[in-house]
Amino acid sequence: VETSAIGMRGVDERAANMAFPLDAAYLQIFPQPSGSHSLLLTAPITDIESLLKELPSSHFDLPHVSQIRPHAFKVPLPGKVVDELCPTVETHHMFARVACIGDSMTNSVDDGKTPRGYPDILQAMFDRAGIHVKVRNFGKFSTTAQKFADYPYWDERRLEAARLWRPHFVIATFGHNDAKENNWDRAAFEKDYADLCHEFLERMSPRPFVFLVAPPPVYKPEAYDIQQGVVNGELQEAVARVAHAAERKINEPIEEASKRARQLPPEELLAQVSVIDAFNFMGGAQLRRPTYFAEDGVHPNERGTKLLALTVFADVRRDVSRCLRKWADNANAAAQSDPMDMLG
């Protein structure tokens, strides 16, 4: 086992100075003429030290900790290179990366009263279901999908962090802050939100599934200057149009090229953008579930946050499970092939 570790002063510095996912490991397997295999592992140094203590020396020729070679990725590796060199990112570990982006529906202000958001609960639901998923919260309260509103998500470093994490699934909750009186511009919202989807969809390795959450209803008029009529009357259709536009922008050129070639487009190249109907599940225009919301009438309380997480989980789990099964099938097929094929 040859190891390469990342040794920097702290997690914050590491995240600020490079694009290596802090909770991932890259493993390369090199068959040797003797029939053995050389493993090259790149991971955070603490993970490598723990791994060296657990691997049996009877089966592995282990290096001493002093032999670990530290290095940092100042520039992220191209996605295709990572996938070809390190298939274990998506097969050996068998977990799907789910990035949650959005406003306070995803990550609210830490006031000690309002739940921090649904992603932690979503992670627990996947864990209980035995579905191997890593959920990360990239949300930021008060942000908008519009580029020229008061707090655009576009200006947040979390957007770039989410992209560099290379998620397989993206769940977005935007709309409440866009619906504020000084912000609301339906055309700008739809265009900028679709562009935000493209920030993720333009990456082909992997091409993520994108889920847009139709925001929950607002129960109190003009709370936080949010226009109740816009949220409860316009946003659902606007979000649906965003999903359609974002998907078609990616898929139309692919479908046209496939049509000219008289063949079906490869499924893995096509974008999939779906809408999660949290609006009706959380009470709809009739405001049927006021007890699921905090006193401000905008943010879900603890009970409502659990319902929001359940709504997301119910919509996402089928696609996540399907992807994991596909990766497992591919891994099994690769395991049954001749290892020497890896030498080209």
From TrEMBL:
SUPFAM superfamilies xrefs: SGNH hydrolase (SSF52266)
One Gene Ontology term of the molecular function aspect: phosphatidylcholine lysophospholipase activity
Top-level division of the source organism's lineage: Eukaryota
Stretches assigned to the SGNH hydrolase-type esterase domain: 100-306
The protein, known as: SGNH hydrolase-type esterase domain-containing protein
Organism: Alexandrium catenella
